[in-house]
């Protein structure tokens, strides 16, 4: 064997060892997480990141330990919606320390690795796959009841990488009521079925605008498309979330509506949505104890 062949062989063995070590860290970390929920949609502009953020906020408000992982690598928006800024700190073991929104909610996003928040991320599939794996293996998540994952629209690299890295994740699919969105959402449902990913349910966002003065609801984008699609595709329906202009202002300001004590139809609907997700996930505390004890049913 020539010297060049020996060098190539050595590099190959080193790469295999590094990959095995990373996979071991991934399995160790996933064993400390109760439920993994991938929030996805076949269509952009349906409010998927808002649903992911408010689901994570709602679960944390109920006392659960929640991680929010933003894998929208080209268009991250979670940190700005939650008012989080600055680059991540690193532990002595060189693992990323998530930003803490509060004691119960911690966040990881590619935006918090960029010195300039407006820098474009220009990556192809293999790099994105590697980064998503690192966001599990090289992050100090600790023990979590829930890991909520915000995915970009479509059925491409990012959701596929999540499924390959976190095989026991369940999907929550977001739509708006009109057919132009539902057509792409049906593709997401079929994607999940094709890759054998359990679907926790479909939620209809921006289902209508409730006037704050007269309480009359106007169906801006139609009405009932989410429920009909869930019934046709034989998946659970997780409810409808009305449009609230205050959410736009809250997201731009980095101050979520859940911090506002004023009641609204949207906040009531979000509470019901979060409660339904909890019910469908089952007993969180029992599952996490089983996983920590080595008897996790997802292994």
Give a written overview of the molecule.
The protein has helices spanning 3-30, 48-61, 78-82, 125-137, 157-165, 179-194, 225-233, 245-253, 265-281, 284-292; strands at 33-40, 66-70, 89-90, 96-97, 99-100, 105-109, 144-150, 170-175, 199-210, 217-218, 237-243. It has one domain (39-292): P-loop containing nucleotide triphosphate hydrolases (Rossmann fold). It is globular, with a radius of gyration of 20 Å. The chain has 299 residues and is of the alpha/beta class.
Main pleated sheet = 9 strands, mixed
Distance between the termini: 42 Å
Number of strands: 11
Secondary-structure element string: HEHEHEEEEHEHEHEEHEHHH
Structural class determined from secondary elements: alpha/beta
Strand residue percentage: 15-25%
Shape: globular
Brief descriptors of the model:
299 residues; alpha/beta; Rossmann fold; 9-stranded mixed β-sheet; two-stranded antiparallel sheet; 10 helices; globular; disordered C terminus
Brief characterization of the structure:
The protein is of the alpha/beta class and 299 residues long. 43% of the residues lie in helices and 19% in strands. Strand 9 (199-210) and strand 10 (217-218) form a beta hairpin.
